[in-house]
Amino acid sequence: MALGKKWIQPGLMMVTGSLSVKFLRPVPVNSEVCATAWLEKIEGRKAMIRAEITGSEGERMATAESVWVVIAPKV
């Protein structure tokens, strides 16, 4: 949910169309990490969003790709 939440406009509903996560290395307990997500592109009702988690020294721990789909509000 956090991947798509940043780009949701007020009153707009989005659902996860797909989500793929690659775990690249273990994250030690109690370590500090940085999670970053960005909008890759928009095609019609679909938003492609990518994200990554990096360790304190900048090493990539995990990456994610997701597709979010805008759904029409019920009338």
Describe this structure in words.
This protein has one domain: Roll (Thiol Ester Dehydrase, Chain A), CATH 3.10.129. A hairpin with a 4-residue loop joins strand 3 and strand 4 (60-71). Helices cover 5% and strands 59% of the residues. It is mainly beta and 75 residues long. Strands 1-4-3-2 form a 4-stranded antiparallel beta sheet, with no helix packed on it.
Largest sheet, described in full? 4 strands, antiparallel
In DSSP terms (H or I, runs of 4 or more residues), the helix count works out at 1
What oligomeric state is this?
single chain
Count every beta strand, where a strand is a DSSP E run of 2 or more residues. Answer: 4
Unreliable segments (pLDDT under 50, ≥5 consecutive)? none
Q: In CATH's first tier, which class applies?
A: Alpha Beta
What Rg is obtained from the alpha carbons, in whole angstroms?
A: 15 Å
| Amount of beta strand | over 45%
Counting structural domains, the number is 1
Structural class: mainly beta
Strand order, sheet with most strands: 1-4-3-2
What is the CATH topology? Thiol Ester Dehydrase, Chain A
Q: Please identify, by name, the CATH architecture.
A: Roll
Shape category: elongated
Taking all residues together, what is the mean pLDDT? 87
CATH homologous superfamily name?
Answer: Hotdog Thioesterase
- Rounded to the nearest angstrom, the distance between the terminal CA atoms is 24 Å
Order of secondary-structure elements:
HEEEE
Question: What's this, in brief?
Answer:
By secondary structure, the chain is mainly beta. The chain is 5% helix and 59% strand.
